[in-house]
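SAMPLE LOG
Freezer: B-3
Tube label: C17
Construct: single chain, 208 aa
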Amino acid sequence: MAPRIRRFTLPELAPGYRGDLGDDYVELLHFRDFDEPLAADGARLEECRFSSVQIEALRNARLIQCELDQSGAPALQAAGAFLNDVRVTHSRFGSADFAEAQLDGVVFENCKFGWLNLRGATVRDVLFVNCQFEEIDLGGQIQRLGFVDSRAGQITAAGAQLREVDLQGLDFAQVEGVDGLRGARISALQLSLLAEAMANHLGIKLGS
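STRUCTURE (predicted):
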């Protein structure tokens, strides 16, 4: 089943300033064109937009109906974050650590990741469109995850718990922890690419 993405439209937003992110509750602000990276650990952000900024810290933050555009970072620390109805577009992350986070109704479009870490995360209704990954770690509880026109160098699936996960739109080069793909939907071509890894996992010897 495809991810269930809930559409939303942001209202008119007031300009946001760096000091606003020191508040526990932030709403209806547009953070735009900051030279220095932003941090919002522990903040609750509702109906906010981030444009052309670097965001480096969202640990334990809550983002509800927010948009991030051109808002990547060399290393995004977002362990324990909660993202509900969030759109991330045209952003680039050297690494994005969502360990133990919760992602519900999130769309990533035209984004690049060196490493995306979902280990221990709870992921539901998340869609990646035209995204690239050097490595993606799916070692969390993941339901209704989909990919469209996306590419990955490596999938790490050890410890993953997958339900209704569709990998057909993700071209990948290799998989670590192939047994963790139980519950995923793949194409016939992807199955052929996985044949050697699956045989090794099962102890099957391939003839010449």
